[in-house]
Amino acid sequence: MVAYLNLILRLAIWFLLTANFSLANIIIGVSIALLLPGLPKVSGTLKDWLRVLWEIIVAIPQAYIEAFEIIFRPHKYEEVTLEQVKPRRTPGLIFLDIFLITFTPKTIVLKYHEAGWYEVHWVRRRKKV
């Protein structure tokens, strides 16, 4: 099941990049998705995938709320923090985690460290003490 989710993720990224649903592009996208290297040694569970997909659904209204907060109550302080990657993450799940963090207006992932950390830039209303 997880292999199908990886395939769907690869195809979704392909269609987002190309924005073309012609028959030739679909064939190319499926070919590329199948030719990319397979699953890593650590396989993600279906539960992890469903949790990340739910977090993305929840992040959509959160992104709108944060956008309105930034418009009506300016955020003047910036902070860079390190956040640890959740254990047993496949590259697909790490990509979705980075997407989830970057999707909201107040945060963006600056760098992914191979040691298992995300470098996250935050925009805050006031300084943390």
Please tell me what the overall shape is. Answer: globular
Number of domains: 2
Spans with pLDDT under 50 lasting ≥5 residues?
none
Continuous helix count: 4
Structural class: alpha+beta
Instruction: Write the element-wise H/E pattern from the N-terminal end onward.
Output: HHHEHEE
What order do the helices and strands come in, and which of them pair?
Layout: H1 2-18, H2 23-35, H3 46-72, E1 77-84, H4 91-103, E2 107-113, E3 117-124
Antiparallel strand pairs: 1-3, 2-3
Helix pairs in contact: 1-2, 3-4
Q: How would you characterize the overall build of this protein?
A:
- InterPro entries: Cation_antiport_E.
- One of its GO terms (molecular function) is monoatomic cation transmembrane transporter activity.
- It comes from Nostoc piscinale CENA21.
- Keywords: Membrane, Transmembrane, Transmembrane helix.
- It holds the Pfam family MNHE.
- The protein is an alpha+beta fold.
- The chain folds into 2 domains: 1-38; 44-129, Ribosomal Protein S8, Chain: A, domain 1 (2-Layer Sandwich).
- Helix content is 54%, strand content 18%.
- It has helices spanning 2-18, 23-35, 46-72, 91-103; strands spanning 77-84, 107-113, 117-124.
- The protein has a 3-stranded antiparallel sheet with strand order 1-3-2, with helices on one face.
- A hairpin with a 3-residue loop joins strand 2 (107-113) and strand 3.
- The longest helix is centred in the middle third of the chain and has 27 residues, at 46-72.
- It starts with a helix and ends in a 5-residue tail after the last strand.
- The mean pLDDT is 86.
